[in-house]
C-alpha cells in the first residue's frame, strides 16, 4: 500500500512539473528575440565579427554582419558593404527592406533583421611576419524623418488682452519628431507669437536646427552629409525667406543642409504674416512640417591577424 502511495505521489509530482514547464513556455536559448527600439537610430548593427581572427595564409575567414530595424519606420534599399580587405569577394550584399518593430502588440514584435556574410581567404605574407587588418562593415539604407513644430499665435489685440489679465505669455516651440529617426529637427523663436496689426505685413524669424543624433552619417545621392526633403507651413502664414526660397508655403531642401557625424546645423527661416488675415483671427496655430528623406550609413569594425609563413 505504501509503495503504491509513493508511486502515485511521484507521478503527481512529475505531472505538476510537466504542467509548470509547458505553461511557462519552453524557451530554447537563441530562439526568441525581444523587440528593441532606439529613439535615435533606424537600423543598428547587432554584430560584426570575424572567425577565426588569427589565421595563416590560405585559411578561410568568415565575416558576419547582423543588422536590425530598431526604429519606427521601414528602412528600404538596405545594403551591406565590407571595406579594408583587398583579397577575395567583398561585394555589396543587397538586403532589401527591413520593417520596424510592431509596438501595437503586447509585448511588441521585434523589427526585421538580416545577415550578410563574406568568405575571405588569408593572403600570403613573408615568413616571420604578422599583420593585423581592420575590417569595416557598413550598412547603408534609405530612411524618412518627419517632424512638426507648433507655434501658438495671437493677433496684437488678443495678445494685449491676455497680458492685461495677467496671463504668462512665455513658452517654447513644441517639436514632435518621429521616433527612431537619426535626423531630428529643433525650432526656436518667439512663443507665443504676437502678430503686429499696425503694419500691413509682420515678419518673424525662427531658427531651425537639423541634428544628426544617430550613430552614422547621411549619404544622399552619394554625397556625405546630404539630406533631402520639404518644409511646409500650415496656417495663416507663408515663407518670406527660408533656405534660399522666398514666398509660398512649401520649400524644397536643396544643397543648403550638410550633416556629418554628430553635427547640428542651424538655419534661419523668415515667416510672413498678413494684417488682413489676422485682423479677424484672435488666435491660431502655425505649424512647420518637415518631411525628410535620405540615405544613411552606420559602421562597425573588427580585426583579423594573418601570420606569414
At a glance:
By secondary structure, the protein is mainly beta. The chain contains three helices and 17 strands.
Calculate Rg over CA atoms.
29 Å
Total helix count?
3
Strand content: over 45%
Report the average pLDDT across residues. Answer: 89
Residue runs with pLDDT of under 50 for 5 or more positions: 1-29
How widely separated are the two ends?
77 Å
Instruction: Write down how many β-strands occur, each being a DSSP E stretch of 2 or more residues.
Output: 17
Structural class: mainly beta
Written as H for each helix and E for each strand, in order along the chain, the element string is: HEEEEEEEHEEEEEEEEEHE
Give a structural overview.
With 309 residues, the chain is mainly beta. 12% of the residues lie in helices and 49% in strands. The chain has helices at residues 2-24, 156-164, 275-278, and strands at residues 43-51, 54-56, 60-69, 75-83, 93-98, 113-121, 130-155, 174-177, 183-188, 193-195, 201-212, 217-218, 228-234, 238-242, 250-253, 264-274, 283-307.
Structure keywords:
17 strands; 12% helix; elongated; disordered N terminus; 4-stranded antiparallel sheet; mainly beta; single chain; 309 residues
Helix and strand layout, with pairings?
Blueprint: H1 2-24, E1 43-51, E2 54-56, E3 60-69, E4 75-83, E5 93-98, E6 113-121, E7 130-155, H2 156-164, E8 174-177, E9 183-188, E10 193-195, E11 201-212, E12 217-218, E13 228-234, E14 238-242, E15 250-253, E16 264-274, H3 275-278, E17 283-307
Parallel strand pairs: 2-17, 7-10
Antiparallel strand pairs: 1-3, 3-6, 4-5, 4-7, 7-8, 7-17, 9-11, 11-16, 12-17, 13-15, 13-17, 14-16
Amino acid at each position: 500500500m505504501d509503495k503504491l502511495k509513493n508511486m502515485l505521489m511521484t507521478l503527481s509530482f512529475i505531472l505538476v512539473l510537466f504542467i509548470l514547464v509547458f505553461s511557462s513556455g519552453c524557451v530554447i536559448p537563441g530562439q526568441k528575440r525581444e523587440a528593441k527600439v532606439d529613439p535615435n537610430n533606424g537600423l543598428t548593427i547587432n554584430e560584426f565579427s570575424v572567425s577565426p581572427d588569427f589565421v595563416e595564409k590560405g585559411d578561410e575567414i568568415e565575416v558576419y554582419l547582423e543588422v536590425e530595424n530598431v526604429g519606427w519606420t521601414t528602412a528600404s534599399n538596405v545594403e551591406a558593404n565590407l571595406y579594408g580587405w583587398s583579397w577575395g569577394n567583398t561585394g555589396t550584399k543587397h538586403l532589401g527592406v527591413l520593417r520596424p518593430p510592431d509596438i501595437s502588440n503586447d509585448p511588441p514584435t521585434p523589427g526585421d533583421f538580416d545577415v550578410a556574410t563574406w568568405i575571405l581567404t588569408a593572403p600570403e605574407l613573408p615568413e616571420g611576419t604578422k599583420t593585423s587588418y581592420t575590417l569595416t562593415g557598413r550598412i547603408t539604407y534609405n530612411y524618412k524623418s518627419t517632424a512638426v513644430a507648433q507655434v501658438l499665435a495671437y493677433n496684437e489685440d488678443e495678445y494685449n488682452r491676455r497680458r492685461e489679465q495677467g496671463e504668462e505669455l512665455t513658452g517654447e516651440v513644441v517639436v514632435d519628431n518621429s521616433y527612431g529617426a537619426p535626423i531630428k529637427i529643433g525650432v526656436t523663436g518667439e512663443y507665443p507669437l504676437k502678430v503686429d496689426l499696425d503694419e500691413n505685413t509682420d515678419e518673424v524669424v525662427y531658427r531651425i536646427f537639423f541634428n544628426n543624433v544617430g550613430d552614422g552619417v547621411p549619404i544622399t545621392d552619394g554625397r556625405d552629409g546630404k539630406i533631402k526633403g520639404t518644409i511646409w507651413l500650415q496656417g495663416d502664414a507663408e515663407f518670406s525667406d527660408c533656405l534660399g526660397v522666398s514666398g509660398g508655403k512649401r520649400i524644397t531642401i536643396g544643397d543648403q543642409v550638410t550633416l556629418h557625424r554628430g553635427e547640428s546645423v542651424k538655419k534661419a527661416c523668415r515667416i510672413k504674416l498678413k494684417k488682413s488675415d489676422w485682423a479677424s483671427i484672435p488666435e491660431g496655430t502655425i505649424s512647420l512640417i518637415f518631411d525628410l528623406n535620405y540615405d544613411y550609413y552606420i559602421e562597425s569594425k573588427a580585426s583579423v591577424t594573418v601570420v606569414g609563413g
